[in-house]
## 1
Amino acid sequence: MRTRNNIKPKTDFGIEVRVFTAQMGMTIKELADAAGVKYATLIEAGTGRCAGHEVIPIVRQYMDSCRQKEGA
């Protein structure tokens, strides 16, 4: 499958973030602000440009807490 040169393929985490923001009706910027991480770092972790070993657990914890609140 070919992608355009200006589109960076998403990692599994990047896809997870996109699905979560679509389900919750929020933007990635809003997710970054709510989770307390930098927007640029979140984007780079989702495209594999940075390791994200600090960002990914923080964002996943926030996403899990939001899902629990939705289910309650």
## 2
Amino acid sequence: MKEKTLVSTFTLLGTLACYYYAKTHQKDIVPYSMVGGFVGAWVGEIIAQVSTKKNNH
């Protein structure tokens, strides 16, 4: 899987998960979505780096 696709997927999943959490707990949606997207992108970057290191060795 390409790195860009992997990071985009995790960003989307993080954003949607935090959106759902904020919506169900009647919180403000925007900050939760932003943090969820940031964390999702961070996780996606880490997984992409680990997978490319495994493919190179």
